[in-house]
Amino acid sequence: METLGLLGNGLAIAVQPMNLLFALIGVILGTAVGVLPGIGPAMTVALLLPITFKMDPAGSLIMFAGIYYGGMYGGSTTSILLNTPGESASIVTALEGNRMAKAGRGGPALATAAIGSFVAGTIATALLTVFAPYLAEVAIAFGPEDYFALMLVAFVTVSATFGSSRLRGLTSLAVGLALGLVGIDKLTGQARLAFGIPDLLDGLEVTTVAVAMFAVGEAMAVASQKGAAAEGHVEAIRGSLWMTKEDWKRSWMPWLRGTAFGFPIGALPAGGAEVPTFLSYATEKRLSKHRQEFGHGAIEGVAGPEAANNASAAGTLVPLLTLGIPTSATAAIMLAGFQQYNLQPGPLLFVTSADVVWGLIASLFIANAMLIVLNLPLVGLWVKLLSIPRPWLYGGILVFAAVGVLAAKGSLVELTLVLVLGLLAFGMRRFDYPIAPVVVGMILGPMAETQLRRALQIAGGDPMVLLQSPIAASLLAVAVIALFGPLLWSRLGWRMKADED
């Protein structure tokens, strides 16, 4: 009952006219960027961070959450009509969705994706409402050594989740940890990695790093591939947008099963949306009575993965809000948004900023309703966005990024940092190094350092304090297993195969 009361207070905040406007702006922007190939919610939130610097925290975070949900919705449109996923989590949708569009059933494919997203998003947000406060209560009992161990788990899992290899992920994380060291050491008062530049003594701004790494780096990467990627053919929507009775019959169970995959996997520290979408697709292919249609346009192959995709978005918010751990690129940028307003996601957030966090959760229900209303009637508008020339699009992103950083800080040093870090991000993309661990390392690195120092001070400098706490010892064991377990497993597999040969 207490949770319902808190949710009611959050709903009262979310339905305020300005917050409703922020939610509407967020879902429209999110859907638009989800439709555009190569531009995801993470880039959009990063671009908006400098502009929202002096805005109301609740309104800004509500808008960012709307962008996150809208981006998950919009990615299905590109996957189905262009066979080019706007988000990596929409890859599976393209397998069957584009075949349906080529067969003249693009309307039902878009409809089952939109309705499935609404059903999954609503159920997952309800689960977030129920489980997040309990997890926050458990996390309140954490000591500094427990928090440090939790940060190590986050570092390992984020490095392993993003990128093509653990080594590349850990290298990107090391870059982020180094960026987090810039500035004055709060314990000793010594300047670190400031190179005599007064503007760097306060440390790097998260907004500057986020804009440079996600927006500027991506724009440079696209510009370097001129002529490499031809514009795809957009399938016309023929026939009705509405689903038949048979389509409904074949879709409702995949929606529920996709939700069951998406939310718990998204809530894991090493979660994400890609794994549940592939699991959902494989499950529907195995359970379907129309297995012969898979590969030729089976509606179950669109309904299940899209539901899993959107349920995982709500699941991602569980570790972000309760533990302060981002498990996706967009969640990492949203963590930067919280810190922009001196709000630290974690168990105490539900106590110190209850109005903000419950207003955010309540706004997710509203954003879901807005998206189902906007997506299908305005599908023609979303399709027209696909015709925007890439040079205009990414040129506008660079201008928007520069103006946003100057408006927030008004410093040429910050603008220079955007250029330098943008070039770094461009090089990392060219050599297949993930970007998200850089932002995660920069945000969580100083927090991990503070918790480690605090734990060692309390223990009189004894490092064994990290193993004396059962929670810390368990989390460190999880980190070690996550880091070395897959390597040992693959080595064991190779040895067994060699013995068989």
Which consecutive residue ranges, at least 5 long each, have pLDDT under 50?
A: none
Question: Using only CA atoms, what is the Rg?
Answer: 23 Å
Strand order of the largest sheet: 1-2
Number of strands: 2
What number of domains?
1
Structure description:
- The protein is mainly alpha-helical and 501 residues long.
- It has one domain (2-500).
- It has helices at 2-14, 17-35, 41-48, 57-82, 91-102, 106-140, 144-161, 166-180, 206-223, 245-267, 274-287, 300-323, 329-340, 349-352, 354-375, 379-385, 390-409, 412-430, 436-458, 465-468, 470-500, and strands spanning 183-184, 191-192.
- Helix 6 (106-140) packs antiparallel against helix 15, helix 7 (144-161) runs antiparallel to helix 19 and helix 10 packs parallel to helix 12.
- It starts with a helix and ends with a helix.
Secondary structure topology:
Elements: H1 2-14, H2 17-35, H3 41-48, H4 57-82, H5 91-102, H6 106-140, H7 144-161, H8 166-180, E1 183-184, E2 191-192, H9 206-223, H10 245-267, H11 274-287, H12 300-323, H13 329-340, H14 349-352, H15 354-375, H16 379-385, H17 390-409, H18 412-430, H19 436-458, H20 465-468, H21 470-500
Antiparallel strand pairs: 1-2
Helix pairs in contact: 1-15, 2-4, 2-15, 3-4, 3-9, 3-13, 4-5, 4-6, 4-12, 4-13, 4-15, 5-6, 5-12, 6-10, 6-12, 6-15, 7-8, 7-19, 7-21, 8-19, 9-17, 9-18, 9-19, 10-11, 10-12, 11-12, 13-19, 17-18
